[in-house]
Amino acid sequence: MAVKIRLLRMGKIRNPQYRIVVADSRTKRDGRAIEFVGIYQPKEDPSVIEVKSDRVQYWLSVGAQPSEAVQRLLELTGDWQKFKGLPAPPPLKVAPERADRTAAYEAEAKAAAGLGGEAEAKPAKKAAKAAEAPAQTEEQAGADSGEQA
Predict the structure, then answer these.
(1) Using only C-alpha atoms, what is the Rg of the chain?
(2) What total of structural domains would you count in the chain?
(3) Is 18 among the domain residues?
(4) What is the CATH number of the domain that holds 72?
(5) CB of 89 within 8 A of CB of 78?
(6) What are 2-26's pLDDT values in tens digits?
(7) Coiled coil where (predicted)?
């Protein structure tokens, strides 16, 4: 039996998501698979590529042939180079971790609860600015009077 490592399409219209599977070469593209060995999500930024490296190495060692698309993905992850004995590629780009929604919510809740305290603090700032303003005018008046004299 000829075995291939290929992509099995999943997801919605215009939002493809693929599973990297090991399947008999005679089955349909989205047909029955022998083993699931990874995922590929091209619409994410950067693309998500997760591969079970040990299982891919096993299937390559027993003669499974990757499709062209899967071979490119394996080259990006470094599994193809490991199988061929070539130097490893540069590391993949990884998306930054998403901010914790609960922490963001709690921070916003604290800020909203603190509005009463901030409202009282704001007039104090205005009062401080008002106190600075007469001092500046006195200094300017002294400077102006010095110029006139």
Answers:
(1) 32
(2) 1
(3) yes
(4) 3.30.1320.10
(5) yes
(6) 999 999 999 999 999 999 999 998 9
(7) none
